[in-house]
Design a protein that fits this description.
Layout (H helix, E strand, L loop, with lengths): L33 E4 L1 H4 L7 H14 L8 E3 L25 H11 L3 E7 L17 H10 L4 E5 L8 H15 L4 E4 L17 E3 L8 H11 L11 E3 L12 H13 L4 E3 L8 H7 L2 H7 L8 E6 L2 E7 L5 E7 L5 E6 L11 E5 L4 E5 L2 E6 L4 E7 L11 E5 L2 E4 L3 E10 L5 E9 L5 E4 L4 E5 L4 E9 L7 E12 L5 E13 L5 E4 L7 E3 L6 E2 L14 E3 L2 E3 L2 E5 L2 E6 L4 E10 L14 E8 L2 E5 L3 E2 L5 E6 L5 E7 L9 E11 L2
The structure holds alpha-D-galactopyranose (GLA).
Length: 660
């Protein structure tokens, strides 16, 4: 905050505005804070304790994460006893922290790391156990933190008694400043009062959204809100899309790589939220990717912006202090797709060619200006692209692309692959091959080699893919491999794995949808459940489907926004269901929140039936649709236009009637 970006390349109008007033410890958080916070991994469970926190500090040093830039070791809620002592002082929970916080701070500092703590800008913190908050105790609590050697405060928003947010957060800023200690100040009011508009001179970072959860849906919704706020971020004042979930188990490694990369592109604080003591190798590889971290930590302090976004194909660009651009090609969709842009579109000056450094592969390539890739479902590619005069020393970048395969067992499907040379110099001796599962026959119907591909030229090949009869329905990997030579370089190989989906047609007569394979599913909370409601986030945690007291044995339990796609093979004519909001919606305590949604049926991309907005007090409604001739039917639930809270939507007794 208050420090103009040390940006050689920035034009004067580009530079973050100079300080109006200084938050505590000016010159702090000139790059987004990095470290650890226990909340996402432990919440208030007993494993949040001294042993864990020390273990994380040890691991930061031993694993190299400290060298990679992770610095703060932060405690979240539940570190204190519910009552203050007779002097109004906070008391650390002696069961969790038998040695006290003074000693814990010393331990963390002895490792060359920094110590962070949490409280709320309210009378109590957020946990229902009711730990003391700092509203009205700002000066005393800030002094106590400083005495413990605290270097970072996360200041939450619960139990705020309706006191104005600016007033509450400013009071703590002043109290922290009065201690004279450098303390990074993290405002956590969930974006409720648009802190990006007023907090630049109050705190060093501010949450922009509600809490993250360990789900793809949560990461996507937070990303979409936070990415819009790029103009407000800069050195010393960052948008905070909440702490990382990488490694907590609710997403795939591909999704965690995307989550981490998107956070880095948005210059977000990188606070590890998983228990590193039990983390996988892959988790360490993601969190420890120093080239992606360098994107986050770039001293220019720009938050990346959206260059384009269409059908879930996102291009983001982040201006870097050295004049390069970090470019992310992100595929939000459920199938692999081409995502592309150009050096010009991301703001780079014209040049013969550019260095295009792949920050996950750790390899440099040359491009004549096209920046593109075919990106797997939910995947991301991050490049650092520079107008580097030495581009000729790098091999040409090549995009390996492929169409989707969806077909029944015992049929022959068509596949098209394309190998495109993005480099300025030709890609030579290009060849392509496709490998599938054991027993599948994959044959080329056109050329699989090219002596040379000029800039932006492609070797396009048609293939037939014979799926053996009896192959069970589901997804199978097809690997497309391209070999080529780039002038003055060793032979190169690049590959892409795409999904081939084996479809199973419904049987003759009436089938319950919950007994059919899904071609695709997306769900607003946890997975879609078969023959129960959606429950909470875990798979299989639903209870019987119940709509206004009527219990159904069969059906789909979903949560808005949701799409379930089934294969109807052109053989079905009627879809039918009883739809409504499950009685379990909003059963989590507090005032009943019964949700509101719409149910829609789509046949081969055309909406063929829909309800109006239904809410949680409506009895089950019949919904039927003519789906004759359609190959695919999608069952869609929208949030009814008011957000997805409590939108537990049931497709009770959902069936399709089909001929053989
Ligand atoms: C709020 C915050 C979370 C976490 C919890 C602790 O929900 O937004 O990040 O600190 O409180 O109770």
């Amino acid at each position: 905050m208050g420090v103009a970006a040390p940006a050689a390349s920035a034009t004067p109008t580009d530079v973050a505005p100079d300080a109006v007033a200084a938050p505590p410890g000016d010159n702090l958080a000139l790059t987004p804070p990095m470290g650890f916070n226990n909340w996402n991994s432990t919440h208030c469970r007993p494993e949040f304790n001294e042993e864990m926190v020390r273990g994380i500090a040890d691991l930061f040093v031993e694993s190299g994460l400290k060298d990679a830039g992770y610095e703060y070791v932060n405690l979240d809620d539940c570190w204190a006893l519910p009552e203050r002592d007779e002097n109004g002082k906070l008391v650390p929970d002696p069961e969790r922290f038998p040695s006290g916080l003074d000693a814990l701070g010393d331990y963390i500092h002895s490792k060359g790391l920094k110590f962070g703590i949490y409280t709320s800008a309210g009378t109590k913190t957020c946990n229902p156990a009711g730990f003391p908050g700092a509203l009205g105790h700002e000066v005393s609590d800030a002094q106590q933190f400083a005495d413990w050697g605290v270097d970072y405060l996360k200041y939450d928003n619960c139990n705020n008694q309706g006191v104005d947010a600016v007033e509450r957060y400013t009071a703590m800023r002043d109290a922290l400043a009065a201690t004279g200690r450098d303390i990074v100040y993290s405002i956590c009011e969930w974006g409720q009062n648009q802190p990006w508009t007023w907090a630049q001179d109050v705190g060093h970072l501010w949450r922009t959204t509600g809490d993250i959860t360990d789900t793809w849906d949560s990461v996507m919704s937070i990303f979409k809100r936070n990415v819009e706020l790029a103009e407000y971020a800069g050195p010393g004042h960052w948008n905070d899309p909440d702490m990382l979930e990488v490694g907590n188990g609710g997403m795939t490694d591909t999704e965690y790589r995307s989550h981490f990369s998107l956070w880095a592109m948005m210059a977000a604080p990188l606070l590890i939220g998983s228990d590193l003591r039990v983390a996988s190798e892959e988790t360490f590889d993601i969190l420890g990717n120093t080239e992606v971290i360098a994107v986050d930590q770039d001293p220019l302090g720009r938050q990346g912006t959206v260059v384009s976004s269409e059908n879930g194909a996102w291009v983001l660009s982040k201006e870097m202090a050295d004049g390069s651009r970090a470019v992310a090609l992100f595929n939000e969709s459920d199938t692999a797709q081409h995502v592309g842009t150009t050096a010009e579109a991301v703001g780079l000056p014209a040049a013969d060619a550019y260095e295009m450094r792949d920050l996950w592969e750790h390899e440099s390539y040359q491009t004549a200006g096209t920046i593109s890739a075919t990106v797997p479902a939910h995947g991301i590619e991050v490049f650092r692209v520079s107008p580097d005069g030495d581009w000729a020393q790098y091999p040409s970048a090549v995009e390996v692309g492929a169409s989707a395969v969806q077909s029944e067992a015992g049929t022959t499907a068509e596949l098209t692959t394309a190998v495109t040379n993005l480099g300025r110099t030709p890609a030579k001796s290009v060849s392509v091959d496709v490998a599938g599962p054991e027993g599948w026959t994959i044959e080329a119907g056109s050329a699989t080699t090219s002596p040379a591909l000029a800039t932006d030229a492609a070797l396009t090949t048609d293939w037939t893919v014979e799926i053996p009869p009896g192959t069970p329905g589901g997804s199978y990997d097809l690997t497309v491999t391209a070999d080529y030579r780039s002038p003055r370089h060793q032979p190169r190989q690049d590959s892409l794995t795409v999904e081939a989906q084996v479809l199973v047609p419904p049987g003759e007569g009436t089938s319950y949808v919950s007994d059919l394979a899904f071609v695709r599913e997306a769900n607003g909370q946890g997975p879609v459940e078969r023959d129960t409601n959606v429950g909470s986030v875990a798979a299989g945690d639903g209870t019987p489907i119940t709509i206004e007291g009527t219990v159904f044995d069969k059906g789909l339990g979903t949560h808005a926004p949701s799409t379930v796609e089934i294969y109807t093979a052109g053989r079905c004519d009627v879809f039918s269901a009883q739809v409504g909001i499950d009685d379990a919606a909003g059963a989590g305590g507090g005032p009943p929140q019964r949700g509101s949604v719409t149910f829609e049926v789509w046949a081969d991309g055309t909406r063929v039936a829909a309800t109006g907005v239904l809410n949680g007090t409506a009895p089950a409604q019949p919904l039927t649709a003519d789906v004759s001739g359609a190959s695919f039917v999608e069952l869609v639930v929208t949030d009814g236009g008011n957000g997805k809270n409590s939108d537990h939507a049931d497709w009770a007794d959902a069936t399709v009637s089909c001929t053989a």
